[in-house]
User: Fold this.
Amino acid sequence: MFKYYKTANVLSALLLILEKKMIKSIKILVGSACVLTLLLGGVVQAKKVTIRVQSVIPSKADEVVMLKQFGSNVSALTNGEVEIKVLPAGAVVGVKETLEAVDKGLIEGGFAWTHYWSGYHPAAMLFGSPTAGAGLGIDNIAWISWYMYGGGQQLYDELWGKMGMNIKGLMLQPVGPEALGWFKEPINSMADFRKYRFRTPPGIPGQSYKDIGVAAVAMGGGDILPALEKGVIDAAEWCCPKPDSVFGFQKVLKHYYLQGLHQVVVNADMYINGDVWKSLTPAQQRAMKIAADASLIQSLAYRIYENGKALKDLTENHGVILHDTPADYFTEYMAATAKLYAKLNKENKFFAKVYNSMKNFADLAVPFWSGAQMTNANLGMAYVNK
Assistant:
C-alpha cells in the first residue's frame, strides 16, 4: 500500500511538472505567435505618409533641387512609406506664413532658413545665419561640427519650444560662405558702399548693415532682379555664384565680391508638424534623421562643384568682374555685429545659452580649424596663381 501511494505520488508529481512545463511552453508559443502577428501586421498595415513641404523660394532654386534629393533618400530608406512632396513658394500659404502654417497643420512641412524666423526668437539666427561666424571664427564646416558633436542639435530641438511652435526641425543644407554681393560700379571703401541701396537678408544680418550706415533693403529672392531692373535697389546679395546666376543678377550688375561676413554660415532646414512627426514609426523617424545628416555633406559637395562651374561661366561668358572686398568693411561689420551679440546676450537667456555653447566649442575647435583652413587657402591660391 505504501509503495502504491509512494508510486502514485511520484507519478502525480511528474504529471504536475509536465503539466506546468506544457503550460509554460504553450504560453511561450502563444506569446511568440502574438509578437509575430504584431510584426507582420505592422508590415502589412504600414501606411504611406505624404509630407507636403512648402518652400519659401521658387522651384528652380538650387536649394529646392537638393531638398528633392533629400526626399528621394527618405523614400529609399523607408521603402516608399514616406513621401516628401515639395511645393513651391506660395502654393498653400504666403512665404511669411510658412512656419505658422506648419505649426497649425495647414501643411505638413516647410523649408526655409532658420534665421527667417528670428522674429519669433532671436536665437533662430544662431542656427540659420550666425552673422560673422557668431563673432567666434566659426565657418560653416565648423558650425556643422558644433551642431553634430558640440551640443548644437539638442539646442536646435529646444528652439522650437522656445518659439511656441509644435514643430520638429531637420537641419539639411549648409550654404555658406556667401558672397558679399553685386554692384554697378567697383567699391573701394565703405564710403563707396554706403552710396548704394543694398538688398540684404532679413533680421540681424540686415540690421548689422544698417548699423554701419548701409541703406539695407530686405526682400525675397524672387523680387531681387525685378527690383534691380526697376531701380528700386542698386546692389544686392543673395548667395553664391550658382544661385545668383540662376536668379540672373549678371544681367544687370557686373561687379562681384566674393568675400563677405554677413552670412559666412548659412543653413537651410525643414520643419515638420509635431503631430505628423510623432505619427511616424521610430524606423521612419530614424530614416529621416539619417537622410538629413547625409544632406549636410551632399549640400557642401554640391555647392563647391556647382559654384565653381557658375563662377567660371560668369567671368568668361557674361562679363562679370571679380573684386576683393574693401578692408574697412571687415572691421566695421565685425564691430557692429559684436555690439548686437552683446545686446542679445543680455536680453535673452536662451540666446545666451546657445551663444555660450558655440563659444565653448569655438575655444576648443577654432584654433585648430582656422590654422588648417589657412593651409587649405594657401594651397588653393598657389594653384590658382601658378
